[in-house]
Write a structure and sequence with these properties.
Largest sheet: 7 strands, antiparallel
Strand order of the largest sheet: 1-7-6-5-4-3-2
Strand content: 35-45%
Mean pLDDT: 85
Shape: globular
Structural class: alpha+beta
Helix content: 25-40%
Length: 165
């Protein structure tokens, strides 16, 4: 287990067979985050979605739960949603780019800025260490973008997924 506070940037991408605005409608509803993220159990915005809005969050890894707050940094309808987790300064970005098949969704977590000592201590002592936690987050990010894709495409194409016309 490492005790360093250095973190790496992580990303996950997926092509979604839908228009960027349809993807935006899904990801900009922060209360739906629990549908996609295996770690974020609650994300509750304290106001309208705009830069500066704060959120209350409950995260989970296994049987361990912890509260966080976030601050929305960027709201660019149809293209980008960025927020910072206040306790560890990690910056999360959902980037939407039009692609030949619809929308390329990229989820990034940049934790390269200095992680506060208390946050690093908790990750090292409670969540298995930075390397293990980052690997859990990386896997969770891949799961998140896949769940977003499945949810949006199921709404757009219900008969292709076993639904009735």
């Amino acid at each position: 287990m490492t005790s360093t506070t250095a973190r790496r940037a992580l990303s996950a991408s997926v092509e979604v067979d839908a228009d960027p605005l349809a993807v935006w409608d899904a990801i900009s509803n922060l209360r739906r985050m629990r549908q996609w993220s295996p770690q974020c159990r609650i994300m509750f915005p304290l106001g309208r979605l705009k830069a500066g809005t704060r959120t209350l969050n409950i995260n989970r890894k296994g049987r361990t739960f912890w509260p966080t707050t976030s601050t929305i940094l960027v709201v660019a309808v149809g293209s980008q949603l960025t927020f910072r987790t206040d306790s560890n300064q990690a910056v999360w970005t959902y980037q939407l780019n039009r692609s030949p098949s619809g929308t390329l969704v990229t989820l990034r977590r940049d934790a390269s800025s200095h992680t506060p000592k208390v946050s690093a201590w908790l990750v090292n002592r409670v969540l298995g260490g930075i390397e293990e936690f980052d690997e859990t987050v990386r896997c969770g990010m891949n799961e998140t973008v896949l769940r977003i894709k499945q949810s949006i495409e199921a709404q757009a194409h219900p008969t292709q997924l076993g639904g009735r016309a």
